[in-house]
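Late entry, evening session. Most of the bench is empty. Finally got around to the prediction I had been postponing all week. Sequence below, unchanged from the version circulated by S.P.
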Amino acid sequence: MKDKVRTAKMLLYQGAGFLVLIAVSWINESLNLHKLVLGDHPYISDFRESTLEMLFVLAVWLVVYGSTRRLMAEKRELESFMKVCSWCRRIGADKKWMAMEEFFSCKLSTSTSHGICDDCFQKQEEAIEATKRQLHLPTLDPDALEPRKSNA
């Protein structure tokens, strides 16, 4: 809904800018505005008239360009956010919610795998050791888990 409002505003600003351009052109023709502003030199008047019209066009263009650029930058910024469900970690894309793995395979054309980062691994080891202490179980020596070398 917000995207439609922003687009409508952008089009409204552009339309208003070009209507102002048309109105200025009509006023110029009906009041001979260029003669009032720049004087009545027969030889140079065409150059001055076209310069004045060019300045009006540039002024309107700057307003339209600035408005459009600002609105499109806001739109790009908002569209760049990825929506992730706070509870189940599914990702919202294309008006539906999908698992993170499905999103990566569809949108990024990449396979996913599972692993554990160093911080989470450390936390899990600490949790296991705390549970063993609570249950009064013997803790495992990491060196005991290494395979024994034979003396052959």
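Two things to note before I forget:
The chain has a mean pLDDT of 76.
The CA atoms of residues 109 and 127 lie 36 Å apart.
Will write this up properly tomorrow.
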